[in-house]
Design goal:
Layout (H helix, E strand, L loop, with lengths): L2 E14 L4 E14 L4 E5 L6 H8 L7 E6 L2 E2 L5 H10 E4 L3 H4 L6 H10 L6 H14 L4 H4 L9 H13 L5 E5 L7 H18 L2 E6 L2 H7 L2 E6 L2 E7 H6 L4 H8 L6 H9 L7 H7 L14 H5 L4 E4 L2 E4 L6
Parallel strand pairs: 3-8, 3-9, 6-7, 7-8
Antiparallel strand pairs: 1-2, 1-4, 4-5, 9-10, 10-12, 11-12
Helix pairs in contact: 4-5, 5-7
The structure holds adenosine-5'-triphosphate and magnesium ion.
Length: about 325
């Protein structure tokens, strides 16, 4: 089957400070998503690189290494007309809907401007089209016209930003923690909406979240990130019911607690002059070894292999035969 999105060895390096300390926020990631409607969840603790990866897929961050192919085209080598096409096909929804709209501008203006850019619509047709799109997300034109962002509830405004994303008839929507600022009772309505849009409009989603319960409920595929690595990916029911990677296991139990003894053992194995962050960067072993209850000697010394077990892919020494 043709691929919608392929990330090949994607690495994003951020550099800091006078000494040029650098670290890999996204580290050699490989992901392939088939060209059929799906919900792909990216999960992992704060700072693991989820938003950075989302920005790479949106073309905002250019990776230092690797390539990102959307429908077979390298998104960093698009012509200007292909870029226009890409921007219609791939849309984003962010965490804070109030930050996505200027508080002094009426929300309708955003919808109108986006609709105006969709070719072939006359002024009269635009309102009808906006109304149709708003109805998809449980609103309508009447409820939106004339209102400023603060006149909506958080849940309603998030629906408006989803409608705005839908206006260009996208094939892929990247939703970065779209429900984390909403009440728990509203979250399920929004994630249900993603499921409906996937089924009815054949839109795929990259859903970024800390919330494994909504992920379990809506997604087809999940990738667990840990410090720039995808440590495990596979069908969601498999990964979340029989997690293979020790980090996924801990993530499902609770927030992982660092084991100071293991961490010291690891740090003592590497260059002494480096700062702690640099040591972690220089370390050759598994990034999770310092916290892993199953870590063996090899985990501190060499990067773990990426191993396929059925349709789950896990980056861990424990599964090396
Ligand atoms: N523009 C930037 N310049 C330098 N460092 C950055 C930049 N953006 C992100 N980082 C760093 O990269 C790492 C990954 O950040 P990222 O925002 O991708 O994490 P995240 O998984 O989305 O976290 P969260 O769950 O808190 O949103 C963090 O250590 C962050 O400080
Ligand atoms: Mg983030």
């Amino acid at each position: 089957m043709a691929m919608l999105l392929e990330l090949k060895n994607v690495t994003k390096i951020f550099r800091y400070g006078f000494f040029g300390f650098s670290f890999k926020a996204v580290d050699n990631i490989n992901i392939s998503l088939e060209d059929k409607p799906f919900i792909f969840t990216l999960a992992g603790e704060s700072g693991s690189g989820k938003t950075t990866l989302a920005r790479i897929i949106l073309g905002v961050h250019r990776p230092e290494y690797g390539s990102v192919l959307y429908k077979g085209k390298d998104i960093f080598k698009l012509s200007s007309s292909e870029m226009k096409w890409f921007k219609k096909e791939v849309q984003a929804v962010f965490q804070d809907p109030y930050a996505a709209f200027n508080p002094l501008r009426k929300v309708y203006g955003y919808l109108y401007d986006t609709a105006k850019n969709v070719a072939g619509l006359s002024r009269d047709e635009i309102d009808g089209y906006i109304d149709e799109v708003l109805r998809r997300v449980g609103l309508n034109l009447e409820k939106v016209v004339g209102k400023y962002p603060h006149e909506f509830s958080g849940g309603e405004l998030q629906r408006v930003s989803i409608a705005r994303a839908l206006i260009t008839k996208p094939r892929l929507i990247i939703a970065d923690e779209p429900v984390s600022m909403l009440d728990a009772s509203l979250r399920i309505n929004i994630v249900n909406l993603f499921k409906e849009l996937k089924d009815d409009l054949k839109i795929s989603f990259i859903y970024i979240t800390h919330d494994l319960s909504t992920a379990y409920y809506i997604s087809d595929w999940i990738a667990i990130m840990y410090r720039g690595w995808v440590v495990e990916q596979g069908p969601v029911e498999k990964v979340l019911s029989e997690p293979l990677h020790p980090y996924t296991q801990t993530l499902l139990l609770s927030v992982p607690i660092p084991d100071i003894r293991l961490r010291n053992k690891w740090l003592s194995a590497i260059k002494l002059s480096a700062t702690i962050e640099e040591k972690e960067f220089i370390a050759k072993g598994c990034k999770y070894a310092g916290r892993c209850p199953h870590a063996k000697d090899i985990c501190f010394k060499s990067e773990p292999p990426t191993i396929a077990i059925g349709d789950v892919i896990v980056k861990c020494w424990l599964y090396q035969k």
